[in-house]
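Weekly puzzle thread! Below is a chain. First person to post its structure in token form gets bragging rights.
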Amino acid sequence: MQIEYKKKAIKYINSCDSATKKRLKEGIEKLPLGDITKLKGFENEYRLRIGDLRVLFTLENDIITINHIKPRGQAYKGL
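Winning reply:
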């Protein structure tokens, strides 16, 4: 599987402290394993839970695109 990052996801990762960056990196590298749930109302949208953070991504043709990384309370607003 190939993993691609959108600009918003990279910006969030760069703004995190080193411990959070490490947790995010480990969680994303293990995809498609982990606490993953398909988002209702969307065809190819999924979320990965890493503590209080949510990694929102799409899965198409063996390419995982990381769209957003947000705290739990803000992750689903605006979808």
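Puzzle host: Confirmed. Bonus trivia for everyone else. The chain has a mean pLDDT of 93.
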